[in-house]
Design a protein that fits this description.
Largest sheet: 2 strands, antiparallel
Strand content: under 5%
Structural class: mainly alpha
InterPro entries: ARM-type_fold, GUN4-like, GUN4-like_sf, GUN4_N
Protein name: GUN4 N-terminal ARM-like repeat domain-containing protein
Number of domains: 2
Radius of gyration: 19 Å
Shape: globular
CATH superfamily of the largest domain: Gun4-like
Distance between the termini: 39 Å
GO molecular function: tetrapyrrole binding
CATH architecture of the largest domain: Orthogonal Bundle
Number of helices: 13
CATH class of the largest domain: Mainly Alpha
GO cellular component, one term: outer membrane-bounded periplasmic space
Pfam families: GUN4, GUN4_N
Length: 233
């Protein structure tokens, strides 16, 4: 039987050389070896070129350790959390970061809409929903911050960039997208909030939500935003 040291070495190799799915599995396996693997994981978090979903999961595992030295290092290295909270509009994304880090996805979804309305301006804030022309004007750093937060704290399952990837893979077929991400089954739309899934058992791309009552123009503008041509996600 392999020792914990051998297993830690094997998992470290897997974290530095495998695809995202295997990296996430390695993190789950590594969590069973905590706190012994904490320092190594912190080192990897600083140096490895991971996707946001892997970075976020590693960060969450380290924050859950309760190790004072590791907590201090995380605060020094990532004072705002694992995702840089960039905003051209001066918005505060820390509350969204906190909700997503603690996997409170329903509250995070509500807050995401409010933040998008803030980006759009006072008229959108007052009405509580968006015009597609407002979405087209969203600053790139703000939309990427929101998307990276969702990616980082969902193991890469949620985010507008995930929805875009699925949509493109389906030939930009909206009906197939609704089915794939479980926003509709057959002719029946998923009802908010009780029929949506607010945890990681949800299908990939299930969150964040976009209201379809006024058609597809808003989500079309989101998934075609110029931000995605400047993002590696």
């Amino acid at each position: 039987m392999a020792s914990d040291t051998d297993l830690l070495t094997s998992l470290t190799t897997q974290l530095t050389s495998s695809n995202e799915k295997r990296q996430l599995q390695a993190l789950d396996d590594l969590s069973a070896l905590m706190p012994d693997g904490g320092e190594k994981l912190l080192e990897l978090l600083k140096t490895a070129t991971w996707a946001w979903g892997v970075k976020g999961r590693a960060y969450e595992l380290l924050t859950e350790l309760g190790d004072a030295e590791i907590k201090s290092a995380l605060v020094d290295q990532y004072p705002q959390g694992i995702v840089p909270l960039l905003s051209e509009k001066g918005l505060d994304y820390q509350p969204l970061q906190q909700l997503l880090q603690h996997h409170d996805y329903q509250a995070a979804d509500d807050l995401t809409l409010k933040l998008l309305c803030q980006l759009a301006g006072p008229a959108a804030q007052k009405r509580g929903w968006l015009y597609f022309t407002e979405v087209e004007q969203f600053p790139i750093p703000d939309l990427l911050t929101i998307d990276h937060l969702w990616l980082a704290h969902s193991q890469g399952k949620f985010g507008y960039s995930v929805q875009r990837q699925i949509w493109l893979g389906l030939g930009q077929n909206w009906s197939q997208l609704w089915e794939k991400i479980n926003w509709r089954q057959g002719k029946k739309w998923t009802r908010w909030p009780g029929e949506f899934t607010w945890d990681l058992s949800a299908p990939r791309g299930h969150l964040p939500l976009s209201n379809q009552l006024r058609g597809i123009q808003v989500i079309n503008a989101l998934l075609n935003h110029r931000a995605w041509s400047q993002s590696s996600t």
